[in-house]
Amino acid sequence: MKFIKWRPDEEAVNYIKALASAIVKTGRVHVRFPRGAGKTSLCKGVILWALLFGYRKYIFVGAATCDNAKSIVNDLWAILEFNPRLLADFPEATIPIRRLEGRMQRCASQHQHGEATRIESTADGFTLATVKMANGEVCPSAFGILVSRGWTAGVRGLVRGALRPDFALIDDPQKQKGAASESECDAI
User: Fold this and answer.
1) 72 and 40 in contact (C-beta within 8 Å)?
2) Cα–Cα distance list, 60 to 97, 126, 155 (Å)
């Protein structure tokens, strides 16, 4: 799906495996790559993988600023909306997004066979559609939620019905300027 424009080296492959293990099982992964090494691209790929296969139902993404966090959400929505390979492999997740035709006000009225898909898209996240596959079962990505925040925004109380985030991914939590400040590093 060309999330990254480089062939992952051994360190990146180990990072991908550690992220996958943290998602499928439980665990924490802390990785330090130099700037521009593709951490954010890898994170986006892992988030989509977790949501589309239903490994996680409510993912929180944190970043240094609200704009950076929203950028991750917007990029993932665009990938779901426009990537032809995802359309072929995950039509149940991508077709409802494509049918909105970029008009988010259509989310509330979208239905499949008379049932609301419950798809949502906001400035800081989205909820994937709940649709049935050809075999009549609900797709694995149904009601997959992604929410993002900048590191100074409130993250307490993230709850949707009885769901709370079941996975958190923090990507570049500090600005370049703050990286040189020991007190800001301690605060983060």
Assistant:
1) yes
2) 20, 11, 9
